[in-house]
Amino acid sequence: MFRSRSWFGANWNKPKNRLSLEHMKYLYSVLEKNLTVSESNRGLLVETLRSIAEILIWGDQHDSSVFDFFLEKNMLSYFIHIMRQKNGGPSFVCVQLLQTLNILFENIRNETSLYYLLSNNQVNSIIVHKFDFSDEDVMGYYILFLKTLSLKLNKHTIHFFYNEHTNDFPLYTEAIKFFNHPESMVRIAVRTITLNVYRVQNTNMLQFIRDRTAAPYFSNLVWFIGNHILELDACVRNDTDHQSQSRLSNLVAEHLDHLHYINDIFCLKIDDLNAVLTEHLLHKLFVPLYIFSLTPAPSLSIATVTQNLAAVLNKVVEIEDVPEANNPRVSVVTAFFLISMVFLVIKHPPLVHTLAWVIFNADNSIFKEGLVKLLDAYTDRKQFVSLGFAEPQESLERALETTLSATNSDTNISTGGDSPQEEQQPTSLPALVQQSELNQTDEEKEKMKGPDDEPTTNHPFLDTVISAMDCAENDYLALLALCLIYAIVDNPGVDRDWLEKTLNSSSSCGTKCKSLFVEKLLKIAYMSSTPASRIRLVTLELNAILIQRFTRSSNRYELSEGQHAMLIESRYHSMNVVKFYYKSEDIFLDLFEDEYNEMSKSSLNVEFLCADSTILLPPTGTPLTGIMFTRRLPCGDVEKARRAIRVFLYLRRLCQIVFGEIETLLPLTNQHICVDIDDVLDLNNSDLIACTIIMKDGQKQRRFLVIDVQQLILVEPDLKRLGWGIAKIVGFLQDTEVSGDKDDTRCLHLTISRGGATRNQSPLLSAKLVFDDYIRCMAAKQRLTKGRSKVRQKKMLQIAQILEIKEPSTEGNNAGIATSGRITLREHRPLFSTANRVPGFAAALRLGSMPSAGVSRVQIANRGSMNSSGDGRRSPSSSSYGRHTSRRDTEGSLSSNTSRPGTRESSPRTPRPRSEEIPLEDFRRSASPGAISRSPANSLWRPSTPSKLAMEKANHDEGASYGNNPSDGQEDKTVSSTSEETSFIAGERKSKKSSSIQTV
Q1: Which residues pair with 694 in a beta bridge?
Q2: pLDDT (tens digit, 9 = 90+) per residue, 307-319?
Q3: What is the residue-wise DSSP string for 533-570?
Q4: How far apart are CA 787 and CA 837, in angstroms?
Q5: 8 Å CB contact between 237 and 331
Q6: Strand pairing category for 765-771 and 689-694
Q7: pLDDT tens digits along 416-453
């Protein structure tokens, strides 16, 4: 009877509540009975380990007895026992075990429970276990487990991982062995682990890392970065047709990760560690590879031929004058890019200042003598590192085994550190000690000052940078050379006093370095202003920034007379190029505004620019490569026009900054006075046209159309205040396209494009507007068409003033600027009577020129003053109309124009609604007030029919002509303007103009 119960196996005593102490005891019994892993119990063990982690996390937050039971039974030792079995490791169990441990340490919150888990050194036993890392799952969970443990490191928990007595730190030493793992996620995790270790402020632990692991780790890391750079350079050399941009972009991103990782180590400010890293970077990577690549590539010399012949004959020949036989070389483009990124990312003063000194002052002897004497100004404790880009003699794993197996005696500790420096330094630095330049060191400022006091005879690296700034063919090298100069000047780690002194010293040609730089920069600016220039816009923008840097002194800019003239000439040439497109390009206005907006959005970020891998490739002129317009050559006439405009704007802004001029003509559109969506507007004195908007999806909205000087506004009535509206759709008139509907005369098809760089995207509004009748539809179309034309004409005149065009051409899109004769910028007819008018003011002004009926000026003035005071509204001179923010809590609007004599409000008859009239062209009032006063008082102006309107206008003209006062001695002139908006009545007016109509 009892034997039959065993048929149920382990499930017979399984508790129903899986999150309980009883379930934990049950899992312990299962684990105890299945210590030996086999094919039959693998699944059971995996489920048991997963359940244990789940219960432990729950118990850590709710029931401490669960965790006490886990520690009491020492269940972690069972994990280690299962892990060490051969048939349990490769697949199921080890993966689940590492996952269980990772979940456990990642989610535990109680510090006491964490200390219990880390005690007994069992976690370190798991870390040093030899897992099968050929399995990707095992490798992934193992490195994730180490990363989770590193996040738990602090000044209290560090003692569980680092043993001071045995100098053992498995968490760190095991992690750095995977620094060059093929999987990028593993390499990133290793960097995170090392940074988490370095952040712990434990002196003994940091001393252990510096003495035993720093040199092997950093030397192998530098070698790994160098090989990655050689791969990057090979991709640049072989990808002249831009076919491998994706691979090149990945290589550049990986290199940036390396530099940021190095900078993160420097930012921790661990002096001993930073000294070792600085020396390895300079002697193993920057000088022997980066700087060496700036020297001209030598031809096949006799020494090289001799060495090759000796190798064939199995002879040993020592040749000291052939450094290229041992050091690899990258292209000058890649070298500029790499050094620029060093100065843009790393800010550690000993490293960046020493590297800057090498570029400006050193010669080829630096490859033999090294930089140890330069680094003496920063630290006294250094490890001697021989100069040269070469593979380390030992792998990192073997080097760590050697150093960790050594005893704690001072002799063994200094084996990889200080004693070789004393033995090898005299043989490696005999010439460096004898140099007078390096003997003049200012220890107080910790910077090398002496080399500037002597006349410089040979600066090969600086000469390479200066020669690269020549843009005879293109700006391929010039752009990267400018990036390098900017990075050095902008780096805070480079001593300012030393840099200023160096720039003011003499160069190889005898002139000051700063003056030579300014001349080269101005030459680039001049060459970019020519029509056939192959200088990219990004080069010109960076060039303008450097001109400001090198010419600024205190609060002013200093240029010689010749430099001043060259800058003025560059702007003049670029202006002439833009004038050509001003006359010929149909979309010139849109291009001009777009380029100005793009230029004004943000300044150039050189670090982001250098992160773009496309600058490593030769300049291309096709947009099919996906390269930004500013970083490639123009393609087609439109892009050439865009480039010409941007070049002019850059040079114009540069001249304004350098010469202290104030911008008064740009931007063409003042955004501060424009209406925004949800603004509350006072529309009591505005012309409104009711319409229904039908969207593409069939949705209908009832709105009122308002046409401003520059904008089209669709408003809905404000329910809180009569005569006020809320702007729902706002667009610029110059971006508006309107067309009629062939099937329905009451409909208009309206499209409002987006301005600026978003012009090619979906339009702001594309819908059909349905009006109440065809007259309102025709009036809206006329207003939109006329408003768009006038806005564009006005802006074209502004551009003509910017380009110093005194008489704008009537060709192309400027045909509407001049109608008869020659109209200059100061003589052209104003587009609107005044800027301070509300939409539809032309109608009110037209009414003002009509006869008034028995209302005196004083009454109208009083009415206007009452309307403008009392409710806090603004005067007509302040704004075109009142505008409120979206909160609708601020009141203020434009006072109505009732103060003008003869307006509609002065008529004894109630006028028709404004939304029903068709506004005419602006009329100028008669110069003689007597002409209006003698008009019949009983005549009323009605906008009922066009014929009657023409008759009343003819009466007004006739009465004004008979109302001249002969005693004045002057002839009053009546100005009669033909309405372009109501041109359909022109013929009728002409036929009736000859006959005078007597009115009573």
Answers
A1: 700, 768
A2: 666 666 666 655 5
A3: ----HHHHHHHHHHHHHHHEETTEE---HHHHHHHHHH
A4: 14
A5: yes
A6: antiparallel
A7: 333 333 333 332 323 333 333 333 344 434 434 333 33
- Give the 3-state secondary structure of residue 851: coil
> Residue holding tokens 């587009």?
831
Largest CA distance in the chain: 142
User: Which residue in 681, 736, 749 sits closest to 710, CA to CA?
Assistant: 736
Burial class (CB in 10 A: 0-12, 13-18, 19+), 950: buried
pLDDT value at residue 117: 84
- Report how far residue 138's alpha carbon sits from residue 291's, in angstroms, rounded to the nearest whole number: 42
Question: How far apart are alpha carbons 623 and 642 in whole angstroms?
Answer: 14
Nearest CA to 618 among 536, 523, 525, 530?
A: 536
> CA distances (Å), 889 to each of 649, 678, 679, 721, 892, in order?
41, 12, 11, 12, 10
Token output for 913: 């609604």
Beta partners for 883? 681
Residues near 743 by beta carbon (within 8 Å), at least 6 away in sequence: none
Residue with tokens 């928990």: 157
- DSSP for residue 506: B
DSSP single-letter state for residue 150: H
Per the listing, tokens 């792998």 go with 395
Output the CA–CA distances (angstroms, integers) from residue 36 to 6, 78, 295, 738, 953, in the order listed.
20, 10, 66, 83, 112
Which of the four pLDDT bands, split at 50, 70 and 90, describes residue 196?
very high
Listed in sequence order, the residues at least 6 apart from 337 whose beta carbon sits closer than 8 Å to its beta carbon are 480, 483, 610, 615, 616
Distance CA(56)–CA(66), nearest Å, equals: 7
Between CA 221 and CA 217 the distance in angstroms is: 6
